[in-house]
Amino acid sequence: MKIAILSRNKNLYSTSRLLQAGKERGHEIEVINTLHCDIDIASSHPALRYKGKDLERYDAVIPRIGASVTFYGTAVVRQFEMMGTYSINESVAISRSRDKLRSLQLLSRKGIGLPRTGFANRPDNIRELIDTVGGAPVVIKLLEGTQGIGVVLGETIKAAESVIEAFMGLNANILVQQYIKEAGGADIRCLVVGDRVVAAMKRQAQKGEFRSNLHRGGSAEIVKLTPVERATAVAAANIMGLNMCGVDLLRSNTGPVVMEVNSSPGLQGIETATGKDVAQMIIAFIEKNARPNRNRTQGKG
What we know:
Layout: E1 2-6, H1 13-24, E2 28-32, E3 37-40, E4 47-50, E5 53-54, E6 60-63, H2 70-82, E7 86-87, H3 91-98, H4 100-109, E8 117-118, H5 126-132, E9 138-142, E10 151-154, H6 157-169, E11 174-178, E12 186-193, E13 196-204, E14 219-222, H7 227-240, E15 244-252, E16 255-262, H8 268-274, H9 278-289
Parallel strand pairs: 1-2, 1-6, 6-7
Antiparallel strand pairs: 3-4, 4-5, 8-11, 9-10, 9-11, 12-13, 12-15, 13-14, 15-16
Helix pairs in contact: 1-9, 2-3
């Protein structure tokens, strides 16, 4: 097969592992810098140009699109879809997952366990917004934040009010969420490919920190999932329309709650913690499922 990896840096661990796995399985695979793609919009003839040349047809594309280039990146994926190329994660699903509020709304509608969440544009009473999610401590999140950036713990009502007021003073969109104290600063990253969790790790925040992201100094270890946790992760991925993603869970007193569904999960932490060759599993899924015009939306969404 002829496969393209959309990535701005071929030296990133995840990109290089997918490239290696594709070559080992006998495919013609290459990295294409998303931002160097030019979209050629012509009636009945969608096309792409790359570094000044017409881009050849590909059987499949693997989007590795950073949050900062979501708008342009999903436009490029959509163009691939319109050209008949199979994308492991479709443009509509990627856009959906990058909008934290939209994601939570979709998951809540289907009954997925979630932390109590409040959102308001300009609340008349910030205290009421805090009370809606159970009172302090609360987690305050920027809608556009990634890797734990823009996530603040308001340990008291006064502290939470100050943080919310500061964010609103910057015209930032924020979520206020229930703090799951019993999780103990740990979460579970489930790597979903297709309809199954292929790897899972527990991430533990370092002392004095409540964010468990590995980018913030958290540690990772292999974890055994319960059947409910496994089913929750797969259901969340399916609801978002993602064939490959990272689903982050917290263990609460009421069962697993989903914190986020990541359409471009890093592979380094989970491959290191579990010893599993996730990159090979992703390529194998593409081998089984890639067909011309097989995307559900075909660029229409």
